[in-house]
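Run folding on both entries below.
>entry_1
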Amino acid sequence: QVQLVESGGGLVQAGGSLRLACAASGRTSSTSRMGWFRQAPGKEREFVASIAWIAGSTNYAESVKGRFSISRDNSKNTMALQMNSLKPEDTAVYYCAAKAGTALTYDYWGQGTQVTVSS
């Protein structure tokens, strides 16, 4: 099992920045990839960004490319999402997630942190 805890959400004006963090604990040695997802009110959860835990390769949703940056610190079992040039449409609950081994889906999820961007 892997436990994930997000932090860093809050209220920010459009154009501002926030940095989200995710702390992983438990069987983190089996982690192969971690990612950020978000869910806005009345909408389905959507992919934001992901990072390979060992190699560090990254993927981003088109809507956040050039504005968001995902990173990880293997030694501390943490992951971060730097969000710049925030827009009101970025408002959502942001979730940290992790894949173990060769799993095709994200098996472990955090409780989520609210990000609200005011216009």
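>entry_2
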Amino acid sequence: QVQLVESGGGLVQAGGSLRLSCAASGSIFSINAMGWYRQVPGKQRELVATITSGGSTKYADSVKGRFTISRDNAKNTVYLQMNSLKVEDTAVYYCNAEWGRIPLHYWGQGTQVTVSS
């Protein structure tokens, strides 16, 4: 099993920046990729960015050029640097880990990001 603990959410004005962190623990050696998803009430959870164990990244079109996903393998932590934030980035952000051959997906508890105009 994998445990994910997120931090770094909060309230920021449009145009500002935030950095989210996700610390993984447990059976981390079988993690294939980690990522960030977000969800607003009444809508489906959507992919924001992912990073594989090899360092390959993928971004949603809506965040390309503004958000950067990175990882610190020594700390078993994934980061999401969010710049030039927009009101429409307001959501609960969830950390995700893709694990094993099947694969299984593990989720963090979520952290609220609110961008005010």
